[in-house]
Amino acid sequence: MDRKELEQKLRDLNDPWKCAAFAAKMALLALPVLAIEADKKGFLWFWKKSERQKYLLAILRAEQLGWCATYLESKEIARAVATDHAVAIHALNAVINAPSLTTHASAVGAVAAVAEVATTTIIAAGIATIAPDTSGNVITFDTNENSAAFSACLVAINIDAVYVAYSIAHIIAIFIEFLEKGKKTILLEQPSKIISPKLHTHFIQGLKELGHGFDTYWLNWYQDRLAGKPLNPKTLAKQVLLSPEYEALSPAEINARLLSQWENPEQETLNRVRVIFLGYGEAGKTSLIRALFNEPVIENKEAMTAGIDIREWDVPNAKIKAHFWDFGGQVMAHATHQFFLRSRCLYVSLLNARTDINANQQVEYWLEHVKAFGGDSKVMLVGNKSDLTQVNLDMHRLNEKYPQRLVNFYPLSCTQYQDAGKHQRYFEIFKTELIEQLQAMEIYQTRFTAAEFNILQILRTKSVTSAFLSKTDYTTLCNQEGIQTTADFNQDSLLKLFDALGVIIHFPKITRLNDYVLNPRWLTYGVYTLIYGKTAHLTEQQAHAILTTQKVVDHEGNELTYSCERYWVILEAMKEFELCYELPQKPHNYVIPDLLPSDQPQNLQFDRATAFRFDFDFEGFLPRHLTANFIVRQHHEIVDNLVWQNGVRLKSQSYQAQALAMADYHGRRWSLWVSGKDTVRYFSKLYDDVKIILARMTLTYSEWVWLPNAKNEVDSTGNMSRAGFKGLLALERARGKLYICEYGQYPLSEVLKFMTDEKRAEQQGGVNIEINTGGGDFSMGGDIVGRDKHHNIEQANNSENAQLLRLLQKLLTQLQQVKSTEETEAAKSFAQQAITEVQKEKPNFFQLKVTTKGLIEAAKAVALIYPIVMPIIEQIEALITKK
């Protein structure tokens, strides 16, 4: 059976579930390819030893989730699996782009191909999770969505053809025959023939050598799936799905938890979900929560929420309780959201119809918050005060920009939710759909063994009367319940889990704190009390005065006390959260950057025109806490107290260099200027710190280098003399010499002179190649390449050129069928340029070599994600080498 026949067979099935099952089966057969050359170099030799477990787990989890998705037919469970797919895909991107991955061709091909199979399989399975029929019980399919499953099948076949000396055509035929006969489970429960006994043996041996759950849980999973052992759909989700709190644990800890859930899927659960209400001040968040509790709501009578308020709500027809988190909407509190927003919560974003801020701008601001901190969490949009002013949203555009995230838009009037009429009806619709969303989240509860749950209950009881728990008491409690200190999931693991859940807060860096914070509300309310004190500069004594003179009461009505022996913990925690810093020359004196004046000082004593400038442009929103965190990290180098909410002036203590950092929230741009003899070294340090802060969030942003001799400012027409940083790196990788754009020609070495040799090696290392033209064209050897040109392809006279033309055309066709990324767009541009050159009556072979060299470099980056293009690239490379 050739590929065309296979494609037709899969299309004839007209069932993405079956296609996904076929892809999952093929992915299972592909896993042993990870043992390539293991007999000579050791198992997973192509990764650093410290990273092997992490990356292998990402691939195995993706394969497992793709397999399980084909089993689960419940709408809620299927959607839960689809949510976990995103986590696995994100991890797989890290696998493929791992800096430590060797450039050895066989290893790169094997790892990228297996990761591609696993990723595409779960995408294929995920197709079936988004289209319930009107009954709400059966999943229906779009027959045009077979492409993901088919892609996974082809890549799996390609792996087997390249890396396994065995023909699998008859196996494919058997698989198809089973699918044609009946349900997908017939195939999944069919024993699989081992394609390569050698690789299979090395893969099994490798899992055993790794230990830490790979030798038990994952070995059993792999062998059971090969044997076709049936799975139990009723308990499968409880056995394989993990709550987001586990994501921070080590592979060994995750494997131990998976094994525990597999052996006992009916473990105790926390039975709570978090609903986070976001919106600007006076949007009506507190009013909506009062309405959900069937309490009276009177306009202009609700007090402004100072920080955060939490209430517990029984979810109808479910075993869970919802914790409603009502965040204060004042801008100065937005920087603290990073500590409380998390994935797999439900978000309710309220829009104030009467504010001066455009409703679409409001909703995008908060949606970007959720995107940055909340993973793939769902968002319900509420337009409050609709009795006074209509809220108009461009829902079509919002759904395009934030696919699979928005539940719906609800125009409400919280003050009239009990009045008979449309406002009561709209509120009931919102409440019903809120309950449906919360019921669907019940599947993702954190599970505990009986001993762990006993400890949890004891700690929750203690937290009512005590804000702290000694480390000795925690150890004693674990010992009493039989929690070990040496197991893969041990006392420290449980502590990390409790910390992630907010049961206990652990500050290992605060050395003088010998206890754990047992009541997180004590910490949360303390931090917000200081922030809402609106004092940017304060001493420890002043902080203590604020905390003791104001009555601090938590959401359960308990008064929180901040004694002389404990209040300092609030300040130390704020330092660790990078919300404040201690003045270097004045111990016990603190500065909270978000409370500093917003006005820029008149004289910054810095010449921006002659300094090197680097920009971060944010597509969605510029996080408020970026500047504050940066200021805290650099506070030892602040010059003459030149620091304000949106910027800071610095002078290096280690290098002969100075810097200026400023945020433009309106333009969503964060800029860094550096000057001095050691500009290169100082910029490298500051750049790394910015990237560390940004790595904590999921953000879309681009990086820009201002060109030499530019004025470093936007001119009167809005033009900026700058180039995309990643595009410059790609040009350097392709051995380009000139950067040519509308502003002129620039030697690439001059444009990139701000990079240290170490930074250049770091940016160019690994296998990930990101190409961004940054608004200009690429230039190699003095000739421009990368411009967007479209020509009709004509038949070349020379037979060798004709062969090259066919290969280029075939590659371009393949590239046009894959997802558009920076890499694919750059590869397509190079391919089109090469096609144009080879069509000429007398092609310039020097130019053709230069162009195809760039094409091959870019296309190989694409091949890491889509290995199916690799054979074409190799043929092009072989042909062009002859010329």
UniProtKB/TrEMBL annotation:
Keywords: ATP-binding, GTP-binding, Kinase, Nucleotide-binding, Repeat, Transferase. Residues 266-441 form the Roc domain. It holds the Pfam family COR-A. The keyword Kinase applies. One of its GO terms (molecular function) is kinase activity. Its EC number is 2.7.11.1. It catalyses: L-seryl-[protein] + ATP = O-phospho-L-seryl-[protein] + ADP + H(+); L-threonyl-[protein] + ATP = O-phospho-L-threonyl-[protein] + ADP + H(+). It comes from the Bacteria. The keyword Transferase applies. It is an enzyme of class 2 (transferase). PANTHER family: C-TERMINAL OF ROC (COR) DOMAIN-CONTAINING PROTEIN, PROTEIN TORNADO 1. This is non-specific serine/threonine protein kinase.
